[in-house]
Amino acid sequence: MNIRDDLISKTAKWFAHETPDNIKSLDELYCAARPNYGGGIALFAFLPLDTLTTLIKEGFADENVQQNWTAPTTRQFVQFMTQHPGFTASGYVVEEAREDCRVTITGLDIRGDHPASYIEALRRFAKGATMSVFVQGKLSVSW
User: Fold this and answer.
1) Which residue in 26, 133, 137, 142 is a FRET match for 9, CA 20 to 30 A apart?
2) Is the dihedral of CA 135, 32, 82, 4 positive or negative?
3) 77-86: which pairs have CB atoms within 8 A and are 24 or more residues apart?
Protein backbone atom coordinates (compact mmCIF):
# COMPACT_ATOMS: atom_id res chain seq x y z
CA MET A 1 0.00 0.00 0.00
CA ASN A 2 1.46 3.39 -0.95
CA ILE A 3 1.50 6.39 1.40
CA ARG A 4 -1.55 8.06 -0.17
CA ASP A 5 -3.65 4.87 0.00
CA ASP A 6 -2.55 4.34 3.61
CA LEU A 7 -3.60 7.89 4.49
CA ILE A 8 -6.94 7.41 2.73
CA SER A 9 -7.49 4.18 4.64
CA LYS A 10 -6.66 5.81 7.99
CA THR A 11 -8.80 8.84 7.22
CA ALA A 12 -11.71 6.60 6.22
CA LYS A 13 -11.44 4.82 9.57
CA TRP A 14 -11.32 8.16 11.33
CA PHE A 15 -14.45 9.41 9.57
CA ALA A 16 -16.16 6.06 10.25
CA HIS A 17 -15.26 6.20 13.97
CA GLU A 18 -13.11 3.07 13.69
CA THR A 19 -10.03 4.52 15.34
CA PRO A 20 -7.77 2.30 17.42
CA ASP A 21 -8.40 2.32 21.18
CA ASN A 22 -5.29 4.41 21.82
CA ILE A 23 -6.64 7.28 19.66
CA LYS A 24 -9.95 8.08 21.39
CA SER A 25 -9.16 11.79 20.98
CA LEU A 26 -9.48 11.48 17.17
CA ASP A 27 -13.09 10.40 17.61
CA GLU A 28 -13.65 13.34 19.95
CA LEU A 29 -12.05 15.68 17.38
CA TYR A 30 -14.28 14.40 14.61
CA CYS A 31 -17.43 14.65 16.75
CA ALA A 32 -16.54 18.23 17.65
CA ALA A 33 -15.87 19.05 13.99
CA ARG A 34 -18.93 17.32 12.56
CA PRO A 35 -21.36 20.26 13.02
CA ASN A 36 -18.98 22.25 10.81
CA TYR A 37 -18.74 19.53 8.18
CA GLY A 38 -19.47 20.37 4.55
CA GLY A 39 -18.10 19.65 1.12
CA GLY A 40 -15.83 16.91 2.40
CA ILE A 41 -14.16 19.17 4.97
CA ALA A 42 -14.69 19.25 8.75
CA LEU A 43 -13.40 22.23 10.74
CA PHE A 44 -11.98 21.80 14.25
CA ALA A 45 -10.64 24.05 16.99
CA PHE A 46 -8.96 23.74 20.40
CA LEU A 47 -6.90 20.69 19.40
CA PRO A 48 -4.35 20.08 22.17
CA LEU A 49 -0.69 19.38 21.46
CA ASP A 50 -0.84 15.76 22.59
CA THR A 51 -3.67 15.03 20.14
CA LEU A 52 -1.83 16.81 17.32
CA THR A 53 1.30 14.75 17.96
CA THR A 54 -0.87 11.59 17.95
CA LEU A 55 -2.32 12.63 14.58
CA ILE A 56 1.22 12.94 13.23
CA LYS A 57 2.45 9.66 14.75
CA GLU A 58 -0.56 7.74 13.47
CA GLY A 59 -0.19 9.18 9.95
CA PHE A 60 -3.28 11.40 9.91
CA ALA A 61 -1.25 14.62 9.67
CA ASP A 62 1.93 15.38 7.74
CA GLU A 63 4.52 17.56 9.47
CA ASN A 64 5.41 19.25 6.18
CA VAL A 65 1.90 20.38 5.21
CA GLN A 66 1.01 24.07 5.36
CA GLN A 67 -2.27 25.88 4.74
CA ASN A 68 -0.72 28.20 2.15
CA TRP A 69 2.71 29.56 1.29
CA THR A 70 2.65 32.14 4.14
CA ALA A 71 1.50 29.68 6.81
CA PRO A 72 3.75 27.65 9.10
CA THR A 73 4.11 23.91 8.53
CA THR A 74 2.50 21.46 10.94
CA ARG A 75 5.98 20.88 12.37
CA GLN A 76 6.37 24.62 13.09
CA PHE A 77 2.97 24.68 14.82
CA VAL A 78 4.07 21.73 16.99
CA GLN A 79 7.37 23.45 17.83
CA PHE A 80 5.57 26.65 18.84
CA MET A 81 3.00 24.78 20.94
CA THR A 82 5.79 22.79 22.64
CA GLN A 83 7.67 25.98 23.54
CA HIS A 84 4.47 27.77 24.65
CA PRO A 85 2.29 25.34 26.63
CA GLY A 86 -1.44 26.00 26.65
CA PHE A 87 -1.88 26.84 22.98
CA THR A 88 -4.28 24.71 20.98
CA ALA A 89 -4.54 24.27 17.21
CA SER A 90 -7.38 24.82 14.76
CA GLY A 91 -7.76 23.58 11.22
CA TYR A 92 -9.67 21.18 9.04
CA VAL A 93 -9.87 17.56 7.93
CA VAL A 94 -10.44 16.66 4.28
CA GLU A 95 -12.29 13.34 4.01
CA GLU A 96 -10.98 10.27 2.24
CA ALA A 97 -13.44 10.52 -0.65
CA ARG A 98 -11.53 13.54 -1.93
CA GLU A 99 -8.27 13.28 -3.82
CA ASP A 100 -6.62 15.74 -1.40
CA CYS A 101 -7.51 14.02 1.90
CA ARG A 102 -5.48 15.38 4.83
CA VAL A 103 -5.44 17.12 8.20
CA THR A 104 -4.30 20.74 7.96
CA ILE A 105 -3.52 23.09 10.84
CA THR A 106 -4.52 26.69 10.12
CA GLY A 107 -4.17 28.50 13.44
CA LEU A 108 -3.40 28.72 17.14
CA ASP A 109 -5.45 29.83 20.11
CA ILE A 110 -5.04 30.25 23.86
CA ARG A 111 -7.72 31.38 26.28
CA GLY A 112 -7.46 32.53 29.87
CA ASP A 113 -4.30 33.43 31.73
CA HIS A 114 -1.03 33.15 29.89
CA PRO A 115 2.45 34.62 30.34
CA ALA A 116 2.78 38.14 28.95
CA SER A 117 5.72 36.90 26.85
CA TYR A 118 3.28 34.81 24.79
CA ILE A 119 1.91 37.94 23.12
CA GLU A 120 5.26 38.90 21.59
CA ALA A 121 6.12 35.29 20.76
CA LEU A 122 2.85 34.86 18.89
CA ARG A 123 3.29 38.19 17.07
CA ARG A 124 6.68 36.96 15.76
CA PHE A 125 5.23 33.57 14.82
CA ALA A 126 2.14 35.07 13.15
CA LYS A 127 3.87 36.86 10.29
CA GLY A 128 1.65 36.38 7.25
CA ALA A 129 -1.42 35.45 9.32
CA THR A 130 -4.76 36.57 7.88
CA MET A 131 -6.41 37.03 11.28
CA SER A 132 -4.89 37.91 14.66
CA VAL A 133 -6.26 38.72 18.12
CA PHE A 134 -3.77 39.88 20.75
CA VAL A 135 -5.47 40.76 24.02
CA GLN A 136 -4.80 39.53 27.54
CA GLY A 137 -7.02 36.50 28.05
CA LYS A 138 -7.26 35.62 24.35
CA LEU A 139 -4.58 35.15 21.75
CA SER A 140 -5.54 33.78 18.37
CA VAL A 141 -4.03 33.64 14.89
CA SER A 142 -5.04 31.93 11.68
CA TRP A 143 -3.89 31.69 8.11
Assistant:
1) 142
2) negative
3) 77/52, 77/105, 77/108, 78/49, 78/52, 78/53, 80/108, 80/121, 80/125, 81/49, 81/52, 81/108, 82/49, 83/121, 84/110, 84/118, 84/121, 84/122, 85/49, 86/110, 86/112, 86/114, 86/118
Question: Domain limits of the chain?
Answer: 3-106
Q: Which amino acid is at 47?
A: L
* Residue 118 banded pLDDT, cuts 50, 70, 90: very high
pLDDT tens-digit readout, 5-39 = 554 455 555 444 443 443 344 444 544 445 455 67
Rounded CA separation 59/106 (Å): 18
